[in-house]
Write a structure and sequence with these properties.
Elements lengths: L35 H4 L3 H17 L13 E5 L14 E5 H12 L3
Antiparallel strand pairs: 1-2
Length: about 110
């Protein structure tokens, strides 16, 4: 059963709500893009898992390219997909969990 219509939360507005208690004039903007992870579930992602990832591990001699550790390895995008990176082998590197976590934090903070 649908909810009963209510009035917009914004003071002075008497329009009916459509999204999270706000009318169309006061609703927050919709996301302009979808997540790169959700957008790229197609052949590029499957190719990454089956082809690129094993080749990157072999190319990097099954060791982290930053610290040389050989345990807990992950294959990372040098330039994140969300920032225009590709799903190719040229954009892949092998990192240990700790180095991958640190790199991801630096990428998020623009360092």
């Amino acid at each position: 059963m649908p909810r009963a219509a209510s009035v917009c939360y914004v003071r002075g507005c008497t329009k009916r709500t459509t999204y999270r208690g706000r009318c169309p004039d006061h609703a927050p903007p919709a996301w302009e893009t979808t997540s790169a992870r959700n957008r790229e579930k197609g052949p590029e992602r499957r190719s990454w898992d089956r082809v690129v990832r094993p080749r990157a591990l072999a190319r990097d001699c099954f060791a982290c390219v930053l610290c040389g550790v050989r345990e807990g390895l992950e294959v990372d995008h040098v330039l994140p997909i969300a920032k225009g990176g590709s799903w190719s082998l040229d954009n892949a590197q092998t990192l240990c969990r700790n180095c991958h976590r640190e790199k991801t934090q630096n990428d998020r903070h623009g360092r």
